[in-house]
Each structure stands twice: as structure tokens, then as C-alpha cells.
Amino acid sequence: MSRTTVDHSLFWNREISSKLSYDANAPIVKEAKIISLSDVNDPSNGPLNNPTNDLPQGSRLLAVGGSIDDFDVELLKREGANTIFVSHPLARDPLDRLLQEIPSIEWIHSRSAGMDFVASPTLTSFQGKVTNAKGLYSSTLAEYTMMACSYFAKDLPRLLKNKGFKNWEKYNVLELRGSTLGIVGYGDIGRAAARLAVAYGMKVIALRRRPVPDDLCSVVYGNDKESLNRLFAECDYILCAAPLTAETNGMIGKEQFDAAKSGAVFINVGRGPIVDEDALVEALKDGRLKGAGLDVFATEPLSKSSPLWELDNVLLSPHNMDQTATFTYESTSFFVEENLPRFVRGLPLLNPVDASAGY
Fold first, then answer.
1. What is the pTM of this model?
2. What pLDDT digit, counting tens, does each position of 114-127 carry?
3. Residue 10 has pLDDT above 80, yes or no
């Protein structure tokens, strides 16, 4: 899939989903013959996998399974399977096999926003449509971003410590208003965080492949290393919301932390391997960074031997700041209720992914 064919304006999120609902009066022009590459025991996939549920007109579920051995590939080839719904955490190898053996596949949809768990050369060269759950997790991760900023601006650890000791100690706090948030990965999560930051009175600087300003960003830089270093040097808070790709793996490390503005806070809600974790630890220990809010890590679960557990200037969460009680169920429902009806009508699908870029 060429990068120029992806229309990133066709993204879904809770704030604008009603404006992007499909045209139910459009005629059905094809059948969706679906392979569900998912855990058969995962209730979040109920809107698709539950046999008692009625799928949208023109849609048919052919098979459900989590490994290639769960599928009768020859039967799926004869049926002309054309759609794969992916939610299984170990889906990379079976998806690769299905794509190689079933040439009729036209569309892959990921229940997750990140695509790194299924990345492969086969997917990169896939010429069909790829979509994901972009927009489902943006609001809660944006809220976490502002919470992490406030955590350090108001020195919440000090408040909690004083409360524990019944110590009535006044101290100066920082305002978020007037400070600068830098965003590395200005996609749907980045934009959601920018909207809240602007509401707080913050200035926003973002990195973009095409450095074109919008109504949220005060300043926009390109996505080269010089611009990345410049963003670290100018921002009080740096949010990493980038996807994990070959280009972003290890993108942030010692050079960026050396360039960081005094008192800067680093926040990562993207993917752990984007950051050199050893360099991050050293920057937190020696004061180059004031603190870090981390929801993702290079290896998950985070090893109990990691020094990040022991650092007082780290806000640490177990990759769950996008995890609401219904988030995965809603993601499956989005596939069934919005994108499936679009597919069978030949309408543009929401949340297109550039398979060659990985997002």
C-alpha cells in the first residue's frame, strides 16, 4: 500500500464518530467473508464471534481461531475469505500464513491501535486495505498525559508523603498554564492530548512528517533528529505517542535527554522500545530530567529488577492507562457496526493504516 493512498482524515474517535457514520442507504455491493483471528474465549470479541449475534447485512463469519491450526485453510480459500479481524496477541505468524495462502484477502482490521504486534514483511507488502482501532484510546491517554503533567507540576508525591506524616507544609507549585508540551507522534492520541493542553493554557509544539501548523500547535517541526532535539530543548513536558516502527525503534535516547530543557518531564504512552531505557534511567538519576510518566516499557511486564521501580521521580503504570472496562468490546463493536457496513457497501473505511509505514 502506498503512503499516498492513505487518507488520514478518515479517522474515528468518540468525539466525532457521529459525524462519520456510514450511509445506510448506500447499496450493498459485496459480501464480507470474515476470518476472526482471535481468542475464542475472549468476551470482548462477542459482537463478532458470538453466533447468536446478527452481523450486518452482507457479512458472514467463516472461522474463529488463535493459531493457523485452528483454520481449515483450504476451505477458507474455496469460500473466498476476504476479511481478517485480528485481536490475538500472538497473531503475527498465523496472519502471515493466512495472507500468503489466501490470495482473496482484501482487508485486515486490527482491534488494537498499534500494529507492531502483527508487523511482518508480508503485511508490509500487502496490497489490500488495513485499518485499526485508532481513536478508541485517545481520550483516556490524553487524560493520563495531563494527569502526569500535573503530578510533577503540583508535586503530588510530596503531598502524599506529607499527608501520611500529617505534616502541614506549604510549598510553591508550578502552573501548567504558560508551559510547553512537546508531542512526538502527532496522531490521534497526540492531537487529543494537544486539545486538552490548549484548554489548560499550554503551548504545544509537535513533530510532523509534513510540518504544517494546525489550530492546536503553536509550532510544528519536521520529524528529523535535529527537530527532535530542538523539541526536547524547548519543552517543559515531552509526550511520546508515536507508534513502534523500524524508524521509531530507539529513536529517543541519550542525545535527546542531553538536549532536554532543565526541569523537563518525559511522558511515554507510545511504545517502550522507542526509548533507550538505560539512557532514560541515567537521565532521571542525574537530574537531566525532572521526572517521567511511563505507561509503556521496553519489556513488559517490567522486570522487578528494573531501577525504574525504585526511582522517586517516576510515575509508573502497567500499560493500562488506555484500559477501561469496555475498551476492547467497544473496539470490536466499531469493526462490526461501522467498518463492516462500509466495506460491504464499498464505502471508505475508517482508520486506514499505511501497511508499509506501520501506522
1. 0.90
2. 899 999 999 999 99
3. no
Place of cell 504558560: 178
Structural domain boundaries, residue 278: 138-316
Q: Which of 176, 179, 244 is nearest to 205 (CA)?
A: 179
Strands ordered across the beta sheet of 32-37:
59-65, 32-37, 83-86, 107-110, 129-131
Tell whether the model's pLDDT for residue 8 goes beyond 70: no
Which residues are part of the catalytic machinery? 271, 300, 319
Sign of the dihedral defined by the CA atoms of residues 235, 239, 245, 246, in that order: positive
For range 123-152, the mean pLDDT? 94
Q: Are residues 158 and 232 in the same domain?
A: yes
Q: What is the pLDDT of residue 355?
A: 86
Q: Do the Cβ atoms of 117 and 241 come closer than 8 Å?
A: no
Mark whether 230 and 150 lie in a shared domain.
yes
Given a contact cutoff of 8 angstroms between Cβ atoms, the answer to whether 210 and 186 are in contact is no
Residue 71 lies in a domain: yes
pLDDT digits 0-9 by tens, 21-38: 788 899 999 999 999 999
For residue 135, give the nearest of 322, 345, 344, 326 by alpha carbon: 322
| Sequential DSSP letters for 211-257 | ----SS-SEEE-SSHHHHHHHHHH-SEEEE-----TTTTT-BSHHHH
CA dihedral 323, 328, 334, 335 (to 10 degrees): 140
Specify whether 123 is located in the same domain as 173.
Answer: no
Give the tens place of pLDDT for each residue, 325-359.
999 999 999 999 999 999 999 999 999 999 888 88
Residues 237 and 337 in one domain: no
By residue count, the chain amounts to 359
**Measured on CA atoms in the order 144, 146, 147, 151, is the torsion positive or negative?**
positive
